[in-house]
Amino acid sequence: MELALSVQHGQDDQLIFAQQLGADSVVVAVAGWEAETLKAVRNRVERSQLKLAGLEASPPMAPGVAQQLAAFCEGLRHAGEAGIGLVSCDWRAPVAAQSEPVGRGKALVAPVPAPAAATAWEALERFVAQAGPVAQAAGVRLACRAGAGMLRESGRLLELVPALDLDLAELAGSGMGAEELIGSAGGKLAMVHANNLRQQQQAFLDEGEISLPKVMRALVRAGFSGPMRATLPPGMVEDTAWGHKGRAFDLGYLRAILQVIERTGR
User: Fold this and answer.
1) How many domains does the chain have?
2) Which of 106, 128, 139, 246 could, after both became Cys, cross-link 101 (CB 3.0–4.6 A)?
3) Cα–Cα distance between 72 and 51 in angstroms, integer?
């Protein structure tokens, strides 16, 4: 298992921070999918002596977006040409911004997305039907980061998507057990999003409804070797917009759990 950070393309300070924290790899969010941009992404990460685990994307979801979907498929071809082997697409429902600090110590936390509507399933089916073969031909693993509504129908989801990007907060909201889903996902589990949920809102990794030690033990037992990434944490006092303090806490917490598992074998 790799411990990764999500970073933004063009933000070299974030790559330096990932180095300082001892991250194994990074997952990069990019705005443009041109061939030169993606080659530059890989080159910059490797020059920072980090591994590029993959890219994060927001796929075209609404009906009638044939042109955007065609452009996305072209981006997948460019990713393959650049030697980028994994692209994760976020299929969670959008949510309104949180206006009040309601987390531990008045930390700013995010609300939970609404369950997926029937139209979201239809859009995902169209997307996979067109983008899936393109990604496969390009040598790119195409993963889906699904919301709680889709995870509740995990059998349908796993049958549909080429690979799964598992969001742990969404898993908590779905009511499914971590070991159950990890076991059923098998080789389709491509990436894990380190997140947590408490009373239907984002929580710090150590306080929510998901037990990170239990999840990570299940992943190790299942032979998962992909990235578990720490992404946007709750907003902390005098932290940056990107969340340097919160990400340091998250990665340190995950590293400590993994070290205990490795040293004790349980």
Assistant:
1) 1
2) 106
3) 24
Report the CATH number at residue 10.
Answer: 3.20.20.150
pLDDT at 170 over 80: yes
Backbone φ and ψ of 167, nearest 5°: -95, 120
Q: Indicate if the pLDDT at residue 98 is higher than 60.
A: no
Task: Give pLDDT tens digits for 179-231.
Answer: 889 999 989 999 999 999 888 788 899 998 899 999 999 999 999 999 999 88
C-alpha to C-alpha distance for 251 and 248, rounded to whole angstroms: 5
Half-sphere exposure of 109 (CA within 13 A, CB side): 22
**For the CA atoms of 172, 178, 182, 185, what is the dihedral angle to 10 degrees?**
-40
Q: Under 8 Å CB-to-CB from 234, ≥6 apart: which residues?
A: 103, 104, 107, 108, 109, 110, 202, 203, 204, 246
Is the model's pLDDT at 112 over the cut of 70?
A: no
Give residue 130's domain range.
Answer: 2-264
Structure tokens at 256: 């400590």
CA 161/CA 208 separation, integer angstroms: 28
